[in-house]
Amino acid sequence: MRLAVIIPTYNEAENIPVLFERCFSSLAGLDFELVVVDDNSPDGTADVAERLGAAHGNVKVIRRPAKAGLASAVLDGIRATNAEVVAVIDADLQHPPELLPLMYSMILRGYDLVIASRYIKGSRIEDWSITRELISKIAITIAHLLFPKTRKVKDITSGYFMIKRDLIYNISITPVSFKILLIVLVSINDFSKVLEIPYVFCKRRYGKSKLNLSEMIKFMIDIIKLKLAKL
Fold this sequence. Notes:
Layout (H helix, E strand, L loop, with lengths): L2 E7 L6 H11 L5 E7 L6 H10 L4 E5 L6 H10 L5 E4 L11 H9 L4 E5 L6 E2 L4 H17 L14 E4 H5 L11 H7 L6 E5 L1 E2 L11 H18 L1
Parallel strand pairs: 1-2, 1-4, 2-3, 5-8, 6-9
Antiparallel strand pairs: 4-7, 5-7
């Protein structure tokens, strides 16, 4: 099965060369492509991605006219590929691409969704403040209360996961959320084919994090909107 790695970007020009190098090294021997979805980054992220992609041949770069949200970027990337399996990874190097082959092997073993989890045994988070971790866990707790079936997954706000394309391509819920994984989890019923694996959530190497207090508050509001949409 062909694998597409979806990479939403905004001002990640410094990180993209390192990410590409690590992705190509980790995925060598597999049938894959990288799909960069850029929201008109003023630092020229899309130009860097296209220049690097020209040397490899299995890179697509989607340019969007303005910032339109992470969830919609992921969906645009998925719609731009025919790969049977898609992975979603941040461009900031906090998600180690070296984990992709393991995630892919779990898909081949029969899992529909493999989540890189920050909150199971064996995981570790680098350089997070107590406040940021607390806000993240509060958001997860609220989501678990509103959507009880998602309690089977510890890290429902993970931005790093791999899934069979047909399970996410046809999701019917509006992607109001900053994190699309919750929408996916709410939309599926068979959690026996969902797997969480531990990893080290790394410190950002270059640039500034897009996730701040206002984004987390927005995410919690969107959780409530998602609940209302399901009523």
